[in-house]
Design goal:
The protein is an alpha+beta fold and 107 residues long. 26% of the residues lie in helices and 15% in strands. It is built from three helices and four strands. A hairpin with a 2-residue loop joins strand 3 and strand 4. It is globular and about 35 Å long. The protein starts with 6 loop residues before the first strand and ends with a helix.
């Protein structure tokens, strides 16, 4: 499942993990992410007396609530080295000040 927005999720080991928008969520996260704005919507259409997934161009993501403040606060608690590690994991540039790293991670 490809995430529609940035979020944090608690792993089975109890670690809070940053998951970036546009990335594939790990299998364990499928059951713990409950915010509908982060998850792709499974739209359906009626066809031949049954319900089937709608073509992707007809599926619309749920409106995303403003989670940036919560995510920003969680990222502010991390060290610059931790933020650089997160940026690196997401294929983002790891240079700059803490605030720049946070802005980059929030996309």
């Amino acid at each position: 499942m490809r995430l529609l927005a940035n979020t944090f999720a608690t792993s089975p080991t109890g670690e809070k993990v940053f998951l970036a928008a546009g990335t594939e969520a790990p299998e364990w996260a499928h059951g713990v992410i409950t915010n509908p704005a982060v998850l792709p919507q499974t739209a359906t259409v009626e066809q031949d007396g049954g319900t089937v997934p709608a073509p992707e161009d007809e599926q619309k993501p749920a409106p995303a609530p403003d989670e940036d403040a919560e995510l920003r606060a969680a990222l502010e608690d991390k060290t610059v080295d931790q933020l650089r590690d997160l940026a690196s994991e997401q294929g983002l540039s790891t240079g700059g000040k803490k605030s720049e790293l946070i802005d980059r991670l929030l996309g």
